[in-house]
Specification:
The structure is a single chain. The protein has 238 residues and is an alpha/beta fold. The protein folds into 2 domains: 102 residues, Vaccinia Virus protein VP39 (Rossmann fold, 3-Layer(aba) Sandwich); 83 residues, Vaccinia Virus protein VP39 (Rossmann fold, 3-Layer(aba) Sandwich), CATH 3.40.50.150. The protein is built from 8 helices and 10 strands. Helix 1 crosses helix 4. It is globular. 40% of the residues are buried. The N terminus is likely disordered. The structure holds S-adenosylmethionine (SAM). The site of S-adenosylmethionine has 23 residues, from helix 5 and helix 8.
Length: 238
């Protein structure tokens, strides 16, 4: 094991210092395997914010429906989804180096070809790298709840963020959110219902159950251990 100063971690691409962030960079402890994974697999899986607009055909070497996930954490559920749907291309965005290391290590060992990863702020990636109307599915599972009221402004789900996501989704594309924080779920529901480009697949004002294509995630299991209920929200871009 080795300590990494996450702030100095060289693979993360970051160019804007922001006053309000939806995350805190934790000085995470990397396992030797996660650290080595960057040398071995980043060249194959890593994408850079600094490269600007992404050409998915060039990045994946094929055209296929595109799924984008923000905040994959340690990445196990994203990897399971990429393996379960080999006909789709998956892009994951995460700022936490140990999680990125774990995901590319496991993906590399399993020979997974339909996955690419940004280690950058997702809002920068959406703005600068992802073409409008290019995503077939967007997923955000168990985002940091920022449960204290004075921190609610740091929640990633805000009207402006959802509007940005809508521009990136294809018409008919799916927006999938999940959380175990009741108060955040209510906030998500309010924001998504107010966005006129979106239609709730469960009927206006309703939550969805967990669809079969979403595996349980690490933070979901933690929430369940704490006795939290889980709510999925599934919308389509009109
Ligand atoms: C509570 S964890 C959930 C992880 C995973 N989805 C799960 O359910 O186990 C939220 C993750 O989102 C990441 N995150 C938060 N804001 C982000 C942003 N703007 N860009 C990229 N990742 C972000 C954090 O680093 C953290 O790993």
């Amino acid at each position: 094991m080795q300590d990494e100063s996450a702030e100095d971690f060289p693979y993360r691409t970051e160019y804007k210092k922001k006053s309000i962030r939806s995350y805190v960079i934790r000085a995470g402890r990397m396992t030797e395997g996660q650290r080595r994974a960057f040398d071995t697999y980043w060249g194959g899986y890593g994408l850079s914010l600094f490269d600007g607009p992404l050409d998915p055909r060039a990045a994946f070497g094929r055209e296929a429906p595109l799924v984008l996930e923000i905040g994959f954490g340690m990445g196990d559920s994203l990897l399971a989804m990429a393996e379960a749907e080999p006909d789709k291309n998956f892009i994951g965005i995460e700022v936490h180096p140990p999680g990125v290391g774990r995901l590319i290590n496991n993906a590399g060992k399993a020979g997974v070809k339909n996955l690419r990863v940004y280690m950058a702020d997702a809002v920068d990636v959406l703005n600068d790298c992802i073409a409008d109307a290019s995503l077939d599915r967007f997923q955000l599972y168990f985002p940091d709840p920022w449960h204290k009221k004075k921190h609610h402004k740091r929640r990633i789900v805000q009207p402006e963020f959802v509007r940005l996501l809508c521009t990136k989704l294809k018409p008919g594309g799916l927006m999938h959110l999940a959380t175990d924080w009741e108060n955040y779920a209510e906030h998500m529901l309010e924001v998504l219902e107010a966005e006129e480009q979106l239609e709730n697949t469960a009927g206006a004002g309703n939550y969805s159950g967990r669809p079969p294509f979403r595996p349980e995630t690490k933070f979901e299991r933690r929430g369940q251990r704490l006795g939290h209920g889980v709510r999925d929200l599934l919308y389509r871009r009109r």
